């Protein structure tokens, strides 16, 4: 761990900052190991609610450093083996291969990957060529793994950069950027204020992050984007600035846009149409991932999601970025359109592409469609079509479990320990291969019936031979691989024992209930109907610690109606608190003809 220990820090502060700073004008804010000076007039952006965001990022960075080290060791030992074998068989290593490996060598030590794509160079030179041996001892010397270099592209006060530098063992240089002069001045003051280790590691620059990232291609092991509102304008340059195998961390707080409040704005920013449904927060994550992938693809790169979370009033994704023209071809297999019935809660996914493998060669084709008929087979109403979304896994469960274990082992190093443990625990129990989720209350709302308990419903799904889990994105959400026809049969069986009042014949619920179930649901309590965390009574969702736990505007700005997409309608109407379910989808889900200008 870096930084001066308590006791010496005050002296260091004085030595570093007292000559130029009148402390009476400032309050000191401490988060984790870092302390920042906040001017009484508070010109620089600081939002303490983002402690969850910063803690989680620190946890992911710690895991990244460890896994990167393991991958590097594995890479070297693989190469050593190949090299030893080759030196017996072929005395000289081909120059092309040495060139391929040079991207992994002295100045770019981070081109180490796991899995098959590990050998893909930045231009995928080796795709169709068997990997050849290299001159092992020399390369080994060149391949000393340097500490990871981090870019905090939108740094404001520098608190995040300072926490990274002071709290994360093994971290390299941290470059903090901001295009606001007052922020850069504050950041520089804060760097000094945090002592010698921070001063040695953190550098602050006044720059437009987009220009800086474009002019520093493949230079950073980690790029962190934490903007006001949408990150969309930063994505194209950010995906270029990350080294192969490096990590992009990205926040988006424009939840009203991403959750379907302004579909046309979402399309213009992210290239996807959002849907107003209970799963909208997970859909928001998947829209952001699809958007990052699309930017990466422009440079023959692709993403591997590590962790994607909805927390508080924002979403945050952690993805690794690799280069490979051949893997990039698989992108349409990882994307889907979503058909959402306007009458009932049925939704269906349609993959953009498919492959056919013949004699070891893979061919890429458009996906088959449409995935649904014109009218919903459950209730007869039409579908809205959203997407494309990222429909491949949004987390790497091995990473998640390893982060969870590490966080538990370092409890006192995380000020937001309870919150990040709750999120990681719920994420660790999500079905990894099931995009989006159902909401039991919505299903019951459609049928106008009383709700079975989650345990009873989960049991019926499990007893029918399907999988089911919760989701971190909503306390009421349920992920399942059961088809909608099975879900409605379970609900029909439930209603047989819990009858509903007669409803008008054109209602979706009436149409659904007019059919006899093909499956006889078994509501006997199944052993796996509670998740491990539920069984152990581990908290999975926590209330906000205080009122006004929400997004903030740029320093010094007043809240006006134009901030509705960033802060949500509640904030703009006078209350800045933006809590679960505030997004517009919850209230306006069943809209047959949603307009784009709500
Ligand atoms: C939400 S704040 C960052 C908060 C910070 N990451 C933290 O954890 O405390 C966003 C910052 O991005 C800066 N910013 C906005 N556009 C920028 C650009 N094009 N280049 C660099 N900085 C920019 C703003 O001045 C602001 O300080
Ligand atoms: Zn329907």
Automatic annotation (TrEMBL):
One of its GO terms (biological process) is tRNA N2-guanine methylation. GO terms for cellular component: nucleus. Residues 82-131, 543-598 are annotated as: Disordered. It comes from the Eukaryota. It holds the Pfam family TRM. It catalyses: guanosine(26) in tRNA + 2 S-adenosyl-L-methionine = N(2)-dimethylguanosine(26) in tRNA + 2 S-adenosyl-L-homocysteine + 2 H(+). Keywords: Metal-binding, Methyltransferase, RNA-binding, S-adenosyl-L-methionine, Transferase, tRNA processing, tRNA-binding, Zinc. GO terms for molecular function: metal ion binding; tRNA (guanine(26)-N2)-dimethyltransferase activity; tRNA binding. Its EC number is 2.1.1.216. PROSITE patterns: SAM_MT_TRM1. SUPFAM superfamilies: S-adenosyl-L-methionine-dependent methyltransferases (SSF53335). The keyword Membrane does not apply. It is an enzyme of class 2 (transferase). Belongs to the class I-like SAM-binding methyltransferase superfamily. Trm1 family. Dimethylates a single guanine residue at position 26 of most tRNAs using S-adenosyl-L-methionine as donor of the methyl groups. This is tRNA (guanine(26)-N(2))-dimethyltransferase. The lineage of its organism: Eukaryota, Viridiplantae, Streptophyta, Embryophyta, Tracheophyta.
